[in-house]
Amino acid sequence: MTTKIKTKIIEFSTMDSKCSYLDNKLSRMHYKYIDNCPSKLNDELVKKGYRRFGHYFSKPQCSTCSECKSLRIDAKNYTFSRNAKRTIKQNRNTVFTIQSPTMTNEHLDIYERYHQHMEKKRGWKRYAIKPQSYYELYIAGAGKFGKEILYYIDDRLVGVDLVDFLDDGISSIYFYYDPDFASYSLGRYSIYMQIQLAKNFNLRWIYLGYFVKDCQSLRYKERYKPFEILQNNPKDCEKAIWH
């Protein structure tokens, strides 16, 4: 006899706090903690603007600001530009593998050095990652849909791309790379590979998370045209409107 695994959901919202994206703005997040999240529910939540990290699904619920816009690339109709082809050619010897998320010393070392690099480059606030924290953010809650795409150059791990595979696309969760290989433009290359994977699997969309016009770290997303923006902030019972 097969025992059906129950899905448990706990919802809560944070208090107002300093916004991570925009100066002089306050942020409030709504969360769903979901244990044993089925693929169908994950699909629905991503399409309604939620972002998944571990068991936690979140989206902004700010009372005085709506600058965080969920963006999805139209992979089906995306055409690789000359610059994109140049980046792909530069990485012709870069190989990747797709598997369930894992955690090794290599993962933790690259993650730490990547954030040290971004602290100097973009002024990111950096917090030392502990194995338990990494597990809770990127491995827990992955179910059957959560994967990592590992990038290698000369058998050396140089990039880790955390994604969810949906029924109509790929949800891009987080990417980090070895700063020693920054010249390979691995961030852009990882998005191009997501787009190519979507084309290969006949998936329409790359859900790229939030686009914030006045945030330097997030503005790059508008380069990947054509794209759609989530126009509303749908409740669980409402339809998401994208265009």
> How much helix is in the residues?
25-40%
Largest sheet: 7 strands, mixed
As a percent range, the share of strand residues is: 25-35%
The CATH topology name of the largest domain reads Aminopeptidase
Strand order of the largest sheet: 8-9-10-11-12-7-13
Question: Unreliable stretches, pLDDT < 50, 5 or more residues?
Answer: none
Compact summary:
This protein has helices spanning 39-47, 82-90, 105-122, 131-138, 186-200, 216-219, and strands at residues 8-13, 17-18, 26-27, 29-35, 51-53, 56-60, 69-74, 94-99, 146-153, 156-165, 169-177, 205-211, 227-229. With 243 residues, it is α+β, with helices and mostly antiparallel strands.
Provide structural commentary.
The chain has 243 residues and is α+β, with helices and mostly antiparallel strands. The protein folds into two domains: 8-66, no CATH class; 81-197, 3-Layer(aba) Sandwich (Aminopeptidase). Helices cover 26% and strands 30% of the residues. The protein is built from six helices and 13 strands. The chain has helices at 39-47, 82-90, 105-122, 131-138, 186-200, 216-219, and strands spanning 8-13, 17-18, 26-27, 29-35, 51-53, 56-60, 69-74, 94-99, 146-153, 156-165, 169-177, 205-211, 227-229. The chain has a seven-stranded mixed β-sheet, with helices on both faces. A four-stranded antiparallel β-sheet has the order 1-4-6-5. The model has no long low-confidence stretch (mean pLDDT 95).
